[in-house]
Amino acid sequence: MAHAREVNFPEGTRIFEEGRPATAFWIVRSGAVTLQVPMPGRRPAPVEDLGPGELVGWSWLFPPYVWQLSAEAMTPVRAYEFDAEAIRMVMDANPAFGSAFGHWVGRVLAHRLHSTRVRLMDLYAPRSASGSLP
């Protein structure tokens, strides 16, 4: 927590955008954040809603440190913001912490990728005449 600062995002704030540099991450204290996949010519597709205690952003941990999704505050959000470079330095300096933290982010990443896949299949997979997936 020595590298955290409290931040607030008003409802509707774009917290980060796909393709932009990933220089921070957040732990939600209160409120709701939606992760989105930008869709050319369409509104962004929501893939997951995050709430208190959840990690917002993982792209800061892996080169080239560029956001893979976008995030928007759906309600007023209070969060802890962490400087990505400082946390990477702490992880490098303390291998036990770095390993534990990396495994935590990895579990979050695996969950997010699964959620994104399921949501995109929901939105774009062909349906049978009954409305269910073939």
Q: What key phrases describe this protein's structure?
A:
4-stranded antiparallel sheet, 2 helices, 30% strand, Jelly Rolls, globular, alpha+beta, 134 residues
How would you explain this protein's 3D organization?
This protein is an alpha+beta fold. It has one domain: Jelly Rolls (Sandwich). Helices cover 30% and strands 30% of the residues. The chain is built from two helices and eight strands; from the N terminus they run ββββββββαα. The protein has helices spanning 84-93, 95-124; strands at 4-9, 14-16, 24-30, 33-37, 45-50, 55-56, 70-73, 77-83. The strands form two sheets. A four-stranded antiparallel beta sheet has the order 1-8-3-6. The protein has a four-stranded antiparallel beta sheet with strand order 2-7-4-5. β4 (33-37) and β5 form a beta hairpin. It is globular. It comes from Streptomyces bambusae. InterPro entries: cNMP-bd_dom (IPR000595), cNMP-bd_dom_sf (IPR018490), Env_Response_Regulators (IPR050397), RmlC-like_jellyroll (IPR014710). It holds the Pfam family cNMP_binding. This is Cyclic nucleotide-binding domain-containing protein. Residues 1-91 form the Cyclic nucleotide-binding domain.
